[in-house]
Amino acid sequence: MSNDNLPVKPEDAHGTVEVAEPIADPGVEPHEPRITDIDPKAADRVERQVSGMFGLATLLVLGSCVAYFAVPRDSILEFGPLSGNANNMIIGLCIGLALFLIGAGAIQWAKKLMVDEEISEERHAAHSSPQQIAEITEAFKEGTEESGFGRRKMIRNSLIGALGVLGLPAVVLLRDLGPLPGRALYNTIWAKGIRVVNDVTDRPIKPSDLVVGQLVNAAPANLAPLQEENASEYQNAKAKAAVIVVRIKPSEIRTKPGRENWGIDGILCYSKICTHVGCPISLYEQTTHHVLCPCHQSTFDLADSAKVVFGPAARPLPQLPLAVDSEGYLVAQSGFHEPVGPSFFERG
Ligand code: FES
Hints:
Strand content: 5-15%
Radius of gyration: 36 Å
CATH topology of the largest domain: Rieske Iron-sulfur Protein
Shape: extended
Mean pLDDT: 88
Distance between the termini: 66 Å
CATH architecture of the largest domain: 3-layer Sandwich
Structural class: alpha+beta
Strand order of the largest sheet: 3-4-5-6
CATH superfamily of the largest domain: Rieske [2Fe-2S] iron-sulphur domain
Low-confidence stretches: none
Bound molecules: FE2/S2 (inorganic) cluster
Largest sheet: 4 strands, antiparallel
Order of helices and strands: HHEEHHHHEEHHEEEEEEEE
Number of strands: 12
Number of helices: 8
């Protein structure tokens, strides 16, 4: 055998080159019999243990069925500060313990009682030999020929058609996920003249209420009345219409062309919904004007049209154009000019 591939030690002071010997195969360690192999009493004991575990598992499974009927649905179990539905907990505990005992019993059985024989298997090449490949190719060709798949085009094509539409039910059943969203993703309840209110106090906001560096969470004034009328519509509207209002020194703002009149004395308004996957953004840093989304750290520069400066979000936060009404309160000039929230496939 050639030594070409063996590691070579560097030359020593006399210029002699030493060739390293390959590490000897240590072989398999001598086999030690288990106690259950040499002591029949120990083997019997383990057999009883394993059967006991399986027997107990049987009782627990039956117990879970009894508990289903016997334990009242509304009874509560309390463990210190924790509490839970007794019916669910007892059934869960019985089935969980039963599964554990079956698993533990099987492991014990395999380790202590099943044949303890050590074997070693030579590693073989992962690919097939050329002869095997040729045989399989030949067998495949023969099978294709015998089935008439190539000759009987009508059967072949109808089978391909049937298999092709098999995935269709999965697509059709997607409808069960709920009503189609239609234009819902494009619209919020913001519209021309809707006042901007503080989302905690519901009080309309005047420009003089905000100092430079301040950021408040806000909502449209037409949101609160929805709460009384329709709870789920209210939640939907609230989730989409949430905004932040921020005041920045006008000299530090880089206004996007076309948005010159969207702010009031450095007061700007943006959607609060992150354009990555829709978490509410928060964590405003006054000095950099950056606002951070806590979910995956997307960071938006509010002084620069909320463009993304870091993170996975792919587009800026949509901006709401602001104006001031006749009583001096902040209002929307219009709704958003683009969908709020995460990007989706129809969005350009
Ligand atoms: S949802 Fe905001 S960064 Fe992912």
